[in-house]
């Protein structure tokens, strides 16, 4: 097999690795990058390096410059600035992923089965550990599913994006699947959803529900959307009265006293932003410097009180990079979201096409992630961010393919001289 033929398997592994292992994720990205270099090198760089401008480079550069200025303004010798900037390798990865996806021909049916197959083992493992009550590898208590990433929230946030993405693929391709394939993929997606539920991460429950309702409103009539909403309400009532653990989590969400840590983290990050409005306190510094705020007279929290991020993606960006960084962050996040919407409208002429199916999945994934960002921070964590960035790359790759198709049609219809 040629490198180009193997590349789709690396691409399918990449987002799944985001919920399995950082080492596997890095190794997969290395293989994709090596494939990129091998292919362009084999072509003797006749078409350049294959990387094209996306159109939002100004926001990437602005965000990095803002972070650099923030570090300079709040200089601290204890901070490893090189390590902090190394985290932004995701920008380079984005361009490499766009190239790899652009040159790859992907069979959606095979891709669905392949990704479900990769996720099946870690999903079953997480469910077995939950049933056992102890992680079989680490020996840690497992009253909430934590998966291979050893964190209920990371497991929930990463898998939630894959879950909504795969649901759409499964629904769109269901009739094309063989009976055994229908059974396996349906079981894999169901178990994945069950593992997310059993993390008891309420913010992800809500983001999946709201994003599903938004996407349903795109493809269903209003009456059917109301039916979905009614069915969801019944399901919530059933779980509330039928599951003591679900009821506990639901009641806990509305109890401010029980959520004092999250509330205080929110308040202290608002205070940080007020003190550092333009450039923020420094990328990632709100966590490292959390303790000095708890020691202040207006807080006076005990020595072991929680130190963490803002538990809100947008406030976290404000606190760490200020209003300037926030503008750039929202610019590139909004850029990919709006481009996805525009391309989906264009592809809606043929709702059975691969482009439409993938763009619908990418939009659902992005909306779910952005809603989940209201209750937690995901973009700063490499494995979670990798899945989100993969969706961006897929959107841009589809745009290139659609433009190539339009160009080809235009050339074929040009009158001969």
Describe the structure.
The chain is mostly helical and 417 residues long. It contains 17 helices and no strands. α6 packs antiparallel against α7 (152-173). The longest helix is centred in the C-terminal third of the chain and has 35 residues, at 313-347. The chain is globular. The mean pLDDT is 91.
Radius of gyration: 23 Å
Helix/strand class: mainly alpha
Q: Into which percentage range does the β-strand content fall?
A: under 5%
What is the mean predicted local confidence, pLDDT? 91
Number of beta strands: 0
- Stretches with pLDDT under 50, minimum 5 residues: none
Helix fraction, binned, reads over 70%
Q: How many helix segments?
A: 17
- The CA-CA distance between the termini, in Å, is 43 Å
Shape: globular
Q: Looking at the chains present, what oligomeric state does this protein adopt?
A: single chain
Major β-sheet profile: none
- What is the chain-wise order of helices and strands? HHHHHHHHHHHHHHHHH
List the main descriptive attributes of the protein structure presented here.
single chain, 72% helix, 417 residues
Quick rundown:
Helix content is 72%, strand content 0%. With 417 residues, it is an all-alpha fold.
How do the strands and helices of this protein lay out in sequence?
Elements (H helix, E strand, L loop, with lengths): L2 H15 L4 H21 L14 H17 L7 H6 L2 H15 L4 H25 L19 H22 L5 H19 L4 H18 L2 H21 L1 H10 L6 H16 L9 H4 L1 H5 L18 H35 L6 H19 L9 H31 L5
Helix pairs in contact: 1-2, 1-5, 1-6, 1-17, 2-5, 3-15, 5-17, 6-7, 6-8, 7-8, 7-16, 7-17, 9-16, 10-11, 12-15, 15-16, 15-17, 16-17
